[in-house]
């Protein structure tokens, strides 16, 4: 685990998860505010969330992977793609970023427009159980899209940012009617903290997305497109000490130079 945490790249990645989640929550929630002069449409909100995530994936994907979602981060860990330490710090950064984004939006929005700051809420005609199923399915399709579109083992993946943005948009076009559409615990947690409005069914916006994303991870990484790795490599990934063969080859010359004796 030392190898991962002591790198500047790791610190940058954690910061980027904070920053990108802040921006995502600010834009997404901001699009759903009910201004007296112009009430938002379902399409407007869906496009705002989708375009925001697509933009952020394009901007920061090469730095942190641009998870911007605790459910996605946990699912990557379940799929043995990232370390435990990265998982914990990413989730913490995302939650803090969501609170910051919601807090900034609250501060710049007129009091008569803030409302409940677009917190997720289950439709009065929908039960918590039904809402849970909806969140599981919507997050499953999002996570599956993320895993497939960012898989470096396939060729011709197209634009991951576009694919993921469309997946988020589709989820909102359906989910808004049921739950306001979460698919992301941070998106639900941030405004709930700022407005101090936690509904009894808030757990749905944690359990649903995490369960849906993890199911997609288990299906994709262990059944549909499994990685052929031995147990020691899998443990090394969890610990954050894994070094792939490609990295080993790239660093061979550096290691060779470091072992050469040079005259004084």
From TrEMBL:
Where mainly found? membrane
**What would be the name of the gene that encodes this protein?**
Aqp5
- What transmembrane ranges does the database entry give? 9-29, 41-60, 88-109, 129-149, 161-180, 203-225
Region (Disordered) residue spans: 245-264
Q: What is this protein called?
A: Aquaporin-5
What organism does this protein naturally occur in?
Answer: Leucopsar rothschildi
The UniProt function text for this chain reads: Aquaporins form homotetrameric transmembrane channels, with each monomer independently mediating water transport across the plasma membrane along its osmotic gradient. Plays an important role in fluid secretion in salivary glands. Required for TRPV4 activation by hypotonicity. Together with TRPV4, controls regulatory volume decrease in salivary epithelial cells. Seems to play a redundant role in water transport in the eye, lung and in sweat glands.
Would you tell me the Gene Ontology cellular component terms?
apical plasma membrane; cytoplasmic vesicle membrane
Q: Which reaction does it catalyse?
A: H2O(in) = H2O(out)
